[in-house]
Description:
This is Uroporphyrinogen-III synthase. This protein is an alpha/beta fold.
Amino acid sequence: MADELAGFTIGVTADRRRDELAALLQRRGARVVLAPALRIVPLADDTDLREATRACLDRPPDILMANTGIGMRGWLEAAEGWGLAEPLRSVLGRSYVVARGPKARGAIRAAGLHDQWSPDSESCEEVVEHLRRRGVAGQVIAMQLHGDRQPECTAALEDAGATVIEVPVYRWAAPTDPAPLDRLIDLVAGRLVDAVTFTSAPAAEALLRAAGDRTEAVLEALRGDVLAGCVGAVTAEPLVRRGVPVSAPSRARLGALVRTIVDELPSRTVSVKAAGHLLTLRGHAAVVDGELRPLAPAPMAVLRALARAPGRVLSRTALLRTLPRGADEHAVEMAVARLRAGLRAPRVVQTVVKRGYRLRVD
């Protein structure tokens, strides 16, 4: 359905495929906040990459660890520019090729190479364990890095007797404009988004790092009201390590991630009956008797507070605590008025003279 995510706001932290992911979510009715946590900086002219390529040509690797599709393509394109593409393909073609995931496998095959094994988990740790069991003593391993170095994986293979050539094809860098990420962090901490999507573990780490003194507030939100949607288990690891429950598909694909969110978010909604109407609360909207009613943040905050205790009277002071800092009791009255207008069901919110407001459940 086109409106499966209508009324929900979802943050997208991806950079390279942000437009594709945003389109998939918007097609299902979601409001999307684009906030790349990192950007990929190619290293086609990097001295380290050229030296790693030369090292592979001088001492052909017995094993190739292909970690990412973009990384393998970037490496071969750089080699093309240096006039080394064919020699590189020739030496890699004689290697035992491990593709960490389907994107790396696709890049390997597109280059005319053949992969021999892939891990079910798409994790470097499973690749290392497979190679250690297979035996790597005295062998040369070309490890195409994905972003930062992976010292634990390199050390484990070297401890098993291998020589590892690290191939740095790109690196992660902070976004050119940090303002969207800063805004998303505020939205998460304030529980003004319903979900945040992550397509890489470094992006999850980068968001938490950028949060600074808001990190604990962000983690608390992700542990409760804000869904953390990860493209796979590897991406989820930094969040899981910090006690954040995540939702991730069994196969690391953007489409599968979107389907996971479609299945998960609506099940987290709150529904109440008030004044003869059925209200279902979504992120920035209420569904009233089956019709979507978008609401501004302040009216929505008031509705959430009232819906947590249907029929119970909440004072202006209590409702004031749900509004942004600096608001006063007049702001509560304005929010209630806007809530009634937005719901188009004025009897739902009842004024109790000298006491406050409640949802009319009788």
